[in-house]
Amino acid sequence: MRINAKWQLPEITGDDLVREGISWRLTPGDAARVVRDTLRAVVAATRAVPAHESIADHLPGYIRGQAQNLLDGKPARIPSPVPLRALPRIGTPPPTADGFTSGG
Prior knowledge:
Layout: H1 14-23, H2 28-48, H3 59-71
Helix pairs in contact: 1-2, 2-3
């Protein structure tokens, strides 16, 4: 999926998200407000919503860091000494009886 004609998530900026919203016929003010409010909600959710134990030590912080970077006017990228593709694959918790994953 492209956002403002960009393919790579680490290169996306908050301005790209706003421009994408404008391309969907939101006003510039509405697009900026939706992006800002959504990113703030993501940051808050990574602190409040419990994560499954298989990802709790790293993924909420990574997502929070990307959202905070976007709020701060930076690209989403999180600098890492190890390329993300070289890190171990993160598993997905199995669904519970109700069809949802456990732990958030």
